[in-house]
Specification:
248 residues; 3 helices
């Protein structure tokens, strides 16, 4: 019996497929590593800003997204007729609303949206009725930026009805509806403030672990494809089939 040897003979179609898949999986792996780095930086930013002393917000404050996560305080008057209710917010297994009321900072022409907390939803579809202080108040809390859901079906009805019920809140959406000059963030009112509702705010720290896990998976897929291609490229042939082999 003639001895057999392995010969490396890559085939065109498997080779092209392997190159495409290995490149794709490798790119996806590095993309997940970039996402992990972004989450790490975001967590560091959040931690650093929460450690800063409370910032006193005034009507003349030049504020931008750099205020996100910061502890803030402001003085002013609530504008109850511009209150909105964010639907389908859960607390202790119960369905309810987040109450959003703008505060006229320093009783001026700039407004701070204040999330005053959670209230339970009633069976009626009528918008809830909440008490709002009419006098000058001091509010404290931390800033956050609301974002639309992943599936955004548009603004829907932005009518001027009092106390509307919205599925979600964004700064741009509220500014168009209200016509107010508002700061580019929302204040999550502190539990210690009076005249509020249930405030069980959680600080969601961005975590990088999920993205690192995905990166390992994509790199593993790339390695598996390479090994499959390598195995398919090795063909076992008998030694008698090669030139220069002496037949006996």
């Amino acid at each position: 019996m003639s001895p057999s040897i392995l010969q490396f003979q890559p085939q065109p179609i498997p080779t092209v497929a392997a190159v495409i898949l290995v490149a794709l999986f490798t790119v996806l792996g590095f993309w997940q590593l970039e996402r992990a780095e972004q989450k790490r930086n975001l967590a560091d930013t959040q931690s650093d800003r929460l450690k800063l002393p409370p910032f006193r917000l005034t009507e003349k404050t030049t504020a931008d997204e750099q205020f996100e996560y910061r502890k803030l305080s402001a003085e002013g008057v609530f504008v109850p007729e511009k209150t909105i209710f964010i639907e389908n917010r859960k607390h202790m297994g119960k369905n309810g609303f987040h109450v959003i009321t703008p505060l006229s900072v320093d009783s001026g022409s700039r407004y701070l949206l204040v999330n005053r907390g959670w209230i339970e939803a009633k069976k009626s579809r009528v918008s809830p009725s909440v008490e709002t202080p009419k006098s000058l108040v001091e509010v404290t809390g931390r800033a956050y930026l609301p974002h639309p859901p992943a599936l955004d079906l548009g603004d829907g009805d932005l009518s001027a009805d009092l106390n509307p019920r919205w599925p979600y809140l964004t700064i741009e959406r509220y500014a168009r509806w209200s016509g107010l000059d508002i700061f580019p963030f929302v204040l999550l009112q502190a539990k210690t403030d009076p005249n509020g509702f249930v405030r069980a705010w959680q600080t969601d720290t961005p975590k990088e672990g999920m993205h690192l896990g995905y990166a390992i998976q994509w790199f593993a897929f790339a390695l598996i494809v390479f090994l499959i291609w390598l195995r398919l490229s090795l063909v076992r042939r008998t030694a008698s089939g090669f030139p220069g082999h002496d037949e006996h």
